[in-house]
Amino acid sequence: MSTRSSAPLRRPSLPWVLPFVAALTLAVGAGCTTEAYCFDDCGGAADAGGSAGAGGSAGTGGTGGLIDPDAGRDAATDAHTDADTDAECGDTATDPRNCGRCGNVCQVPGGFPACAGGRCVVGSCDHGMVDADGRVDNGCECELSNSGVELCDGRDNDCNGVVDDGFDLATDPNHCGVCNRACPQKDHSTLSCVAGVCTYACEPGFAKPRGGNHPSQGCSYECPVYPTQPEICNGLDDDCNGLVDDQPTDVGTACGTHCPNGVCVGECSAGAVYCVNGAPTCLGGKIPSIELCDGKDNDCDGQVDESFNLQTDPRNCGACNNVCNLPNAVSNCASGQCGVLACRPGFRDLNGDPADGCEHTCAVYPTGPEVCDGKDNDCNGVVDDNVTPISNFCAQVGPCAGSSPRCEGANGWRCNYQARDARIEVQANGSLSPIETKCDDFDNNCNGQVDETFPTKGQPCSVGVGECAGKSTFACAPSGTGVTCNVAPNPNKARDELCNGLDDNCDGQVDERTPSGSLTCYTNDSGGGAHACQGLVEPMIRVGSNLWVHAWEASRPDATGSSFGLDETRACSKPGVLPWTSVNRANAEAACGSIRAGNGTPLRLCTEVEWQSACRGSANQAQTTNPIWSYRTAPLTYVSQRCNDASTNLLAPWVTGNQAACAADWNIGANPGEKYGYDFSGNVSEWTGTRITVDGVNYYRVLGGNYGAQGAATSCNFTFVLQRETFRNFDVGFRCCSSAAP
Q1: pTM, to two decimals
Q2: Enclosing domain of residue 639
Q3: How many other C-beta atoms can be found within 10 angstroms of the C-beta atom of residue 152?
């Protein structure tokens, strides 16, 4: 009996005729093939599972392919013909060894072939094999398992073409979703399989825990209220969903009101019932608020956005909160549309489109009229447009007359100046130099001025020191780079030093007592009267043995007969000039202190006693109680207009020493040969250094009267006037004293 396997071996194609096949079968002997169909049953009898062909031989099954009996035949040595082959084949319509044509052997894997109508078909299947798909090429392809009883194991056990038929994975609780997955039993629940998912229906009074949708979760949550009911606000889980007071049915109704006059319009609303801590509570509601531009009636007056003009408001232009903020522009709103009110500095709106604001950035800012410079000066988007050279653009002054301009873009207008005269100075851009660099008596930059860069040209200049310096005016130097002073000093102008703020003796010092070096002074500019220069000695009268007083009221060094002067470096005492007035006591003291006596000590203001003594003259020192005036003669009797007081009606100081008769006589008596002291009476009042304290306030004695005083008020003994130290006036001056000889 043949031995068959479930996976038969494929035999090779046979290029020989059936008699040879039979001989081959006898040569094999009694052994069996591994194919389901044998051409020989190993003993000469046909296999019960197959059919015998001519000669009683049976063959090995194959893959169902056809074998060509002429394959490999040598046409030159074998005289067998197709006619001979057909005669030998027998019935090709039913013979599985010659099915359809001679030598075409039918093969069925896992089964036994047959030939029907000249085509190979499955005759029968081997034990345990089934032809489930009806195809001859793969034969009996399905192997029965589990004795042909279908299991839920992902296989077609009964070979009916359906896997796991008879099992509903969508509803079977023992195979829920997949084979052999049984739904476990859970407490307080009834299980079922729905759509392949284990599902549990809770018993009455029980529910799944909140969020418990997983199949493994049972109904472990026992309802606090049973039978359940719709949720109400009571602190209980009435509907058994795991939540307390969620969406209770007894809340949400309107309660109370915050609306004006009880009528809710706009944003105003009544309150509502809320569930709070298990009890219904009225909460919420909205009261009127400030009206906003938001399309709502915020103040609940029945009007919406009534405070806003959407046609003109740049913050709400055309619609609420539509802020007009156009680029680089000051925006406005007109007819509900944002527009450009003005452009920011340095920008222009050239296209007129409000959407992009002032879109053009000025290349030049600040802008100005268009000029020929290769730039858009007026910020109209065009460079050097419509620029016409103005008349007389090129200077027509002096050597530039007849010059003409030409626009050269970034180089600006250029004039042909140097073509007319090479001395004309121009800058790198061709324009006239703003300044002349040469001093050459030529108008180099055609501005109508000659050598104006050298402002000192023509101005006074000097060479030398002090009053000896030669004086001239500056002129152009030969090099043309500057000016020079073409003059020489004149030493014959050296004079003895005077108190005038000048270096009279040409030694580099002003109003000095001791000249520097051995200097020669002269009486005229021709060198006449040569003598050793004398320094300045203060003109002072000697009062007693140890007091010297300025002969004239103090004046400024640069004072003249018509000017009070401005130089306040020191005080001078000299005739013929206006006195130093409008000075406070401290400045008067300082002016005296700037002068040195012969021993080097500074001068000072006179005390009251010193001043009165000097005023009385040498012959009247005993007259301390009766009025006495500083008259050269008859000082005990007042004389109108002898001194400058109210009787002269001048109402201003006169020059010092104006009246020789108004002088204290120190030329007689104990000090023969001394000078006179002028203007102690009248002209201007004079500070002294004597301080008087009244009610805790410090005052200083002012003596001598002035041009506005009457008679006795100008006497030497009149001591009525006191002034605070800071007082200053046009009628108050001073003179200096010294305890050492000048």
Answers
A1: 0.45
A2: 538-742
A3: 20
